[in-house]
Structure formats: C-alpha cells, structure tokens
Amino acid sequence: MLSYSDARQKVIEVAGSVLRPLLRTQVEIEQSFGRILAGPVVADRDYPPFDRSTRDGFAVRAADAQSSGARLQCVGELRAGGHFEATVLAGQCIEIMTGASLPRGADAVVMIEHTKREDQTIILDRPAQRGDHIVPRGTEAQAGALLVAPKTRMGYAEMALAAQAGATRLDVFAAPRLAILSTGDEVVDARTKPGPLQVRNSNGISIEILARTAGAETNQLGNAPDEKGALRAAIERGLVDDILVLSGGVSMGKYDLVEQVLADLGAEFHSTGALTSHGRPAD
Predict the structure, then answer these.
(1) Which of 14, 144, 128 has the alpha carbon at shortest distance from 60?
(2) Residue 100 is part of a domain; what is its CATH number?
(3) What is the pLDDT of residue 256?
(4) Residue 32 binned pLDDT confidence (cut-offs 50, 70, 90)
(5) 282 has pLDDT over 70
(6) HEC secondary structure over 150-191
(7) CA–CA separation, 183 vs 234, rounded Å?
(8) What distances in angstroms separate CA 194 from CA 2, 188, 230, one per listed residue?
(9) CA–CA separation, 188 vs 162, rounded Å?
C-alpha cells in the first residue's frame, strides 16, 4: 500500500499521461482569479519606469548633503505623476512626494523628518548618500521580463502584476470538468431526510468544493445503488467528463462493486489503497 504522498504523486503522474490537453481560452482579468495561466505575463516597460522616490522629503544632490546642517534652497515641488522641467543645481533641492519621479540633477532623497525649514531654505539634520530612498528605473522588472509564468494559478498578487503590465485579457486553460459519483444503498442526498438506516451524502459535497477550489468545473452525478447495472450506467455517464471521482464501494464486501465494474470497463489499476490513517481491517 502506498503512502499518502506517493499515492498523490501517482495520481498526478497518471492523470498527466492520460488526460487530453486542456483547451485554452481568454478571460478578462477580473474573471481570472483561481484560473491557471496558459501564456506568460511579461513587463510591457521598465518597472519602475523612472527613478522613483520612496519617501516624502527633498530631492537633493548628494554632493551638497554630506554633512548635518547643510543648507539648501528649495526651488520647486514635485508630486507623484508630476514633472519638473528644470535641473537641480548645486545648492538646490526640490520638495518631492512618495512615488514621484526624481528630477534631473538629483541623486538622493532626504526624508522630510530629517529636515527643518526656514522659508525656502531647507536645513538637513543628517548627511545623505547617493541613492538614498530611491528605486532606480527597471530594478523591479525590465521591459520584456517574465512577471507571471504559465501554469501559475492566478491569485490577487498575480492579478495585480498582470494589471500593472496592462495584461487585462489573459490566456488561461479551460477548466477541466470533473464528475462526482457516490455509491451505496444507504446514501441519500444531503437535502433529504434520511431513513433510520440511511446517511446523507456528505462526501459528494466535500469533493465538489475541493474540486472547485482546485479550479475544476463539477458535474454532480448523485448516488448510485449497489447494483452492477445501475452502477455501470452511472460510471459511464461520469467517464464522459475529463475526470471521474467515485466515493464508496471499494472495500471487500459482497456489495462493494466499484472495482468490479471498473475492471469490466477495462480500467487499469495503478494503486488500490493509500495510508491515510492508522486504522485498517485486521489481518
């Protein structure tokens, strides 16, 4: 009997070898959550597309800010999305906001918390080094760089990356269709009041939710009785879909008929059990 991890790997290997290739489709980015990406998402330009300030403060020339107490003349203001036409010259600085593009001539940003202001004169209370509080152009990603690889499940972070790159219509794999069939004369629909010797079908519900969470479309076939003809007909309906998951009917009892029916249909068995708990029938 295989361990759980080995059994899981066996299912993945076998499914990968026998399932037909999934079709591709396109979806709007808002509908891509949980889908499996079929094509790459690449950067359409450098990110950031300019040298970007990471702090509110003052854009300076580091050569002018080598000591505490340095005094600089503020000659303008630059906010995110704005543009400063002039070049920062010796002895000058520009008030800058987080996310703004570094103006020409400046090579560092001094946080506003580390300055004092006297009218248009800015007094630094500590020195600055070149590159302080700046994200240089292209350091997050360069144009053409892979942002999200194919076969990635799209989550909120991947969707944000795609949106940033303008990839608002995405190539994804069509969701596989998974049929779910429970078995057993004692099993009734979860919406039904069970008789004194019956149980509600909880397995079918949990399998359906697990499948949907994994990205599959589901086809709930309900429950098949412990009778070979009816069971075979139900299994054949499920085999029309990409995957069929059966629950019940695989023990050693007289009416555990699933393996018999599958064998009659020509099924190949790769494993007949997995060690998922400490309990099992005694030898």
Answers:
(1) 128
(2) 2.170.190.11
(3) 79
(4) very high
(5) no
(6) CCCECCHHHHHHHHHCCCCEEEEECCCEEEEEEECCCEECCC
(7) 10
(8) 35, 7, 21
(9) 45
Q: Which is it for the CA torsion 227, 230, 233, 239, positive or negative? A: negative
Mean pLDDT of all residues in 233-248: 92
Beta bridge partners of 3: 275
> CA torsion, points 157, 159, 160, 166, in degrees to nearest 10?
150
Integer distance in angstroms from the first to the last C-alpha of the chain? 14
CA distance linking residue 57 with residue 199, whole number of Å = 68
Q: Is residue 218 part of a domain?
A: yes
- Domain of 32, CATH number, reads 3.90.105.10
Q: Region 53-64: what's the mean pLDDT?
A: 97
Confirm if 189 and 222 have CB atoms less than 8 A apart: yes
Residue 24: how many CB atoms within 10 A of its CB? 11
The pLDDT value given to residue 252: 64
Residue 3 confidence class, pLDDT cut points 50, 70, 90: confident
Mean pLDDT for 209-228 is 91
The pTM assigned to this predicted structure is: 0.73
Compute the average pLDDT of residues 238-247.
92
How many domains, the chain? 3
- Between CA 239 and CA 263 the distance in angstroms is 14
- Which residue has tokens 């794999």? 173
Neighbouring residues of 119: CB distance < 8 A, sequence distance ≥ 6: none
| Residue 283 belongs to a domain | no
Query: What residue ranges in 47-176 does DSSP mark as E strands?
Result: 52-53, 57-60, 71-78, 92-96, 108-111, 115-118, 121-124, 134-135, 146-148, 169-173
